[in-house]
Specification:
Blueprint (H helix, E strand, L loop, with lengths): L1 H14 L1 H21 L12 H15 L4 H14 L8 H6 L17 E4 L5 E3 L1 H15 L7 E5 L5 H11 L2 E4 L20 E4 L6 H9 L4 E5 L10 E4 L5 H19 L7 H5 L6
Parallel strand pairs: 3-4, 3-5, 5-6, 6-7
Antiparallel strand pairs: 1-2
């Protein structure tokens, strides 16, 4: 099918090269990229085009703001059947913050964390797995001191919580834009060395992730169902598109990190997520 598609594109270019050359070359490049990155027998791909990514983000962000009390109670009841003992925060708070919601796209890498789809097609991440992976992430993170770590969050939904995370932990934080070469180019005035990078999305924060990978340093990443995770050393499966969800995950990481490092911590969940009432 890929060969036939390529032939069709070439024919269109021959018919009207001036009009279709740019579009045809772009399609050919995308086709090759997806074939090289694809997994045999699975047509799922990462949403690399801006429009496609924005559509996925919008769907999950809207759904995250519409979590009802009935849904919270139902999901919590189902999860309690799978989980014995306490979770890092009450199950109801995980669900209220929509940490368990994924996109309609599920990559092969993230499929094992999904246990069902909602009626609207959105994936539902196993909250037990989220809690377990958060515990693993905390153990991984506490091996590093604040000056050895930096966090990157280019997605606007996570800016406030990322800045709060840096404020309470002392970890360097970059929002809005990741300065290129800041950890790889020695001649830059703002160059610094780090032993661990935390990213809030492997796609949005790919430049920081790739810089860290080239340096052979570990990456701790928040990963949603549509993410590929080849260069992520330690992942937290979660909704990394919505404000409350990102805030909830960063709150837990910050609280547990400060507790382990004996750093004073007085923040509340709402300081990271914003108001939670009204759900």
């Amino acid at each position: 099918m890929a060969k036939e598609k390529t032939k069709d594109i070439k024919k269109e270019i021959k018919k009207d090269p001036n009009k279709n050359l740019k579009e045809g070359m772009k399609s050919l490049a995308e086709e090759l990229k997806h074939r090289l990155a694809g997994v045999a027998g699975d047509s799922i791909k990462e949403p690399e085009e801006a429009g496609e990514t924005e559509d996925l983000d919008k769907e999950i962000q809207e759904a995250s703001e519409k979590i009802t009390k009935e849904e919270i109670e139902k999901e919590a009841k189902e999860i309690k059947k799978q989980k014995e003992g306490e979770t890092l925060i009450p199950l109801e708070d995980y669900i209220k913050c929509a940490v368990h919601l994924g996109t309609k796209v599920i990559t092969p890498h993230m499929r094992k964390f999904v246990y069902k789809r909602r009626a609207d097609g959105l994936a539902v991440i196993n909250t037990v797995a989220i809690d377990e992976k958060l515990r693993e992430a905390v153990k991984f993170l506490v091996d590093y001191n604040p000056e050895q770590v930096y966090l990157v969050c280019r997605r606007e939904a996570g800016w406030k919580s990322a800045e709060k995370f840096g404020e309470v932990t002392g970890i360097k934080t970059f929002t809005k834009k990741y300065p290129p070469g800041i950890t790889t180019n020695l001649i830059l005035e703002n160059f610094f060395e780090a032993e661990l990078t935390i990213i809030c999305d492997p796609w949005m924060d790919r430049n920081a992730m790739l810089d860290t990978y080239r340096l052979k340093k570990p990456v701790l990443g928040l990963c949603c169902t549509n993410n590929f995770i080849q260069h992520v050393t330690k992942l937290i499966p979660c909704n990394n598109k919505a404000t409350k969800s990102i805030g909830c995950v960063l709150f837990i990481l910050a609280r547990e990190y400060c507790k382990a490092k004996k750093i004073p911590f007085n923040a509340k969940l709402e300081d990271f997520t914003g108001p939670l009432e009204g759900n």
